[in-house]
Amino acid sequence: MNKHHPKLRSFYSIRKSTLGVASVIVSTLFLITSQHQAQAAENTNTSDKISENQNNNATTTQPPKDTNQTQPATQPTNTAKTYPAADESLKDAIKNPAVENKEHDIGPREQVNFQLLDKNNETQYYHFFSIKDPADVYYTKKKAEVELDINTASTWKKFEVYENNQKLPVRLVSYSPVPEDHAYIRFPVSDGTQELKIVSSTQIDDGAETNYDYTKLVFAKPIYNDPSLVKSDTNDAVATNDQSSSDASNQTNTNTSNQNTSTTNNTNDQPQATNNMS
Question: 187 pairs with which residues across the strands?
Fold first, then answer.
């Protein structure tokens, strides 16, 4: 029996060693497996977080939609009505409410008589009855401006004025509505001017247009500007303190004391429209 004890001890020692090694191997495998599972779980969580962050970034960094592509900007509508120039169509220019009863007789001026003649140097009667004589000549810093008072303004279409075949700018400065129906137009003239040409036409309502290709406007004397009487360089001349418009009016009375009797008839009579060219 004692002989077998060493063998048994050796057997049990080997068995214990084997079990110990097996236990160590199993423990090692368990640890390795646990680490792999933990690493896999960590990688999965990390991937999920990265994916979530990418989705969040994609959501927050989307550029704003360009609304201009689908909704064009609304342009402001220009509702202001335009009117033709006085020399183009006086009957339409007077419809501008901005010139209705506008004050215009301001500044130093004088009055000059004139005649309206046709190609045969005979009176152009429609013009004679429609345009008030004398004309007002206003002084400015640049050129003298002639102002004509046109009666029955709503019947005048074209009203062009020429100085030595050069067309002058004609502007409407005021309009007195019906029943007066007076338009006040102005145009600049050079010093020494005594004769102008008018190319005009008349039209009653929507009827036929009557053309007057030549009307000669002859002043009683040459026109000269006097800028020394003007306080400031504006479209509407302003009198200086030492020369008021009343002084100019007194001077006018002296210059126009020899007016002919046709002036009275010209002011009171109303024109009768005609379709025949004078």
Answer: 146
Delineate the domains of the chain, giving CATH numbers in brackets.
90-231+248-257 (2.60.40.1850)
User: What are the structure tokens assigned to 186, written together?
Assistant: 């102005």
Q: DSSP assignment, residue 153?
A: G
Q: What stretches of the chain adopt beta strand conformation (E)?
A: 109-112, 114-117, 135-138, 144-150, 156-163, 166-167, 171-176, 182-189, 193-203, 209-223
Question: Which one-letter amino acid corresponds to residue 259?
Answer: Q
Give percent of the chain with pLDDT exceeding 90: 53
Q: What pLDDT digit, counting tens, does each position of 105-147 carry?
A: 899 999 999 999 999 999 999 999 999 999 999 999 999 999 9
Confidence band for 80, pLDDT divided at 50, 70 and 90: confident
Give 152: exposed, middle or buried? Use CB within 10 Å, 0-12, 13-18, 19+. Answer: buried
Q: Give the whole-angstrom CA distance, residue 153 versus residue 90.
A: 7
DSSP per position, 207-258: SPEEEEEEEEEEEEEEE---GGGBSS-SSS--BBTTB-HHHHHHHHHHHTTT
Copy the structure tokens of residue 50. 């990265």
Q: Regarding predicted confidence, which is higher, 102 or 72?
A: 102
80 SS3 class? coil
123: left (phi over 0), alpha (psi -120 to 50) or beta: beta
pLDDT per residue as tens digits for the range 37-68: 555 555 555 555 555 555 555 455 455 555 55
Q: For residue 77, what is the DSSP state?
A: P
pTM score: 0.59
